[in-house]
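REQUEST FORM: STRUCTURE PREDICTION
Request ID: SP-0412
Submitted by: Lab K.M.
Chain count: 1
Length (residues): 475
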Amino acid sequence: MSIKKWTALASAAVLMAVPLAGCGSENTDNAAPSASAAAEATAEASASAAPAGETFDNPELNVAVFQGGYGREYWDSVAAEFMKDHPGTKINITASPKIAELVRPKIVAGNPPDFMYISGSDNTPILDGLVKDKALLDLTDVFESNTESGTPLKTQILPGVLSSSSISPYGDGKIYLAPYNFGVMGLWYNKNLFDSKQIAPPKTWDELFAANATAKENNRALFTYQGLYPGYLEEMIVPAIASAGGQEALNQFFNYDPEFWKSETYTKVWGLLEKIATEDNALMKGTVALNHTQSQTAFLQGKSMFIPNGTWFEDEMKDAPREDGFQFGFLGVPSLGTEGKVMALTQVEQMVIPAKAKNPELAKAFLKYLYSEKSIKLNAEKAKGVMAVIGAPDLAKEYISETTYNIYKAVDSGMVAVSGSFKPVAKGSKYNASDEVYKPISSIMSKQMTLDEYSAKLYKVYTQIQKELQDQGQQ
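STATUS: Completed
RESULT:
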């Protein structure tokens, strides 16, 4: 994405090693099949998204989508295929980087689009509002419905995704948000540099900081990040929390336990940020004032050793200048212990149908169609994305880069995947959890705020968020 969405919608964090770029906890409804078997099952099921002779009382569908790093070409193309397979239907696509500004007045007026894909940090608060207001359509029946192979659609989705609270936000087992692209995030490096100089990618944070000497030898800083958008630091902070404190610490962090900010886990994880901010050559000069494109270009040009980003990184920066021989290498996130269990943050984007959609029947049919083999391949070809479907990386392999494919396979071969998101705050709250946590980090990195000042601030914020939830009977 052009400006990465760094918040999701609900609580619950999951820490586990997952099969085939999997995300979340083990799905007890079905074991994950092999990639080839999953691909075959998806292929068999593809026609089920377009039942022969299916007609709709209202044949026109209004779709609103975020136009970011994935672009809009996929949505135009899949809409055209759907209309071809469903003669007489008409799909209108509205796409914009600021899609929330376009749809918010319609939602307020009670006339929302029939189907929405909302992403991007400036847009996602509108999804938070829809979740808080319980203004999303129940999609459980879509995923319970059978495909042509005779198996429910839910069995094609990555294990644990549908039961996660970012998809089933009310804890009642019902699905209100549908999974779209699956991303893997962590630290990146120049693979050509590391290979040619025989530099071993660090597996622990001690090894990473020790690489500062190597960075100096190669005329670059150790680290940079998307300075004006410190939420990108989530990509290393969340795995580090998991490494330091496990599931308990993740639950504290995402569920607003004020005591997290007095914990040993906090001290260890934010101590990494302080070390980056204060150690000589650790942070690339000027980082805090750079936007995502500027910092990422500086990294590609060899001005820093590492940068956080996700699986869209290579495609987003395909036209950016870079140092000779540059090759994208994905490190993941080093371990805080000595065992060297490298981790990665995982994230599944969401699609929704508003409860007040004028055409929910056609919207559900369109949603189901998006999980067909045709759509999964089209998404890979046009958007360079991998959908949260079992076997999708292999279905997408011919369209995505070797780097992107290898990232998913790295997770498959033992990298520990971590996922999680903030629990929704109380309705009407002035707090945006992601902003409260990540924006002040800029002051830490610019040495204008101490860790004690930061933790005291966040302790008060979490205490107030908890009180608001309690007052509304949500805690």
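NOTES: The radius of gyration is 22 Å.
Reviewed by: T.R.
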